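Sorry to interrupt, but I need a hand with the structure work. Could you add the entry underneath, on a fresh line?
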Amino acid sequence: MRKRTLKRCLTAFWWITLVFLYLPLAVVVLFSFNASNSAASMTGLSLRWYHQLLGNEQIMAAFGNTLVLAICSSVIALVIGCLIGYGMYRHRHRKLGWLIVLIYLPIVLPDIVFGISEMAFFVQFHRLTGLLQPGLGTMVIAHVTFQIPFVALIVYSRFVGLDPTLFEAAKDLYATPVKRVVHFMLPTIKPALISAFFLSFTLSVDDFVISFFTAGPESATLPIYIWGAIKKGVSPEINAIATLMIGAVAIAAAISLLFSRKNQHSRKRQS
């Protein structure tokens, strides 16, 4: 009887938590289809705000900057993070506690501290060299710096799950280093790479603080645009932008989770 009561309480707590987390998002999505000009009252359903977005040059420019920033930073972070993850695996038997701390530091460091430090660095670097003026380029570099640890840890965890004898078997079959990478390593860690890319993409699209401190006047992203527009009050147009961002992040997160589970299943088969 006690187990049944406890199970019911835990189930109720689970559903309450889900409602608490996702009800605000559901409200934003619902009011994005509001036919009224006010975001406080619902008078009917309409797609007018989504059509209006397509004609807003500022929003479309911010949307383009968001995509360019997310894709470029994710690709760069994927390459560098993959190399770091493999290096961590190759030297896992050494005492590399300091390296682990450096990898985790951008993850646990508050965004505002990270953003201010990035801004101070770019300002001083531009003052001394005339390069890296605040803009989309500095934003890409800043995003890469906090995306790399996530990619490195995902790739490292995939390599750790592999049978070490597979690497020796590839050598015994006279595979050159290039062939081992192309025909063995990349196909084996492919789910981890795809998962890491979409996770990086999600983090980039969702980021505001670091983007805000490293952006230039012509490189506003959707989160920065929303922050500036919301000062005038929440409008159905802002709700529509937020809904599109929720959908994009949800799709990227779902794809990342899908390949992460595929990665776990492949590990179980090998074990």
Q: What stands out?
A: The chain has one domain: 58-270. The domain at 58-270 is CATH 1.10.3720.10 (MetI-like fold). The mean pLDDT is 81.
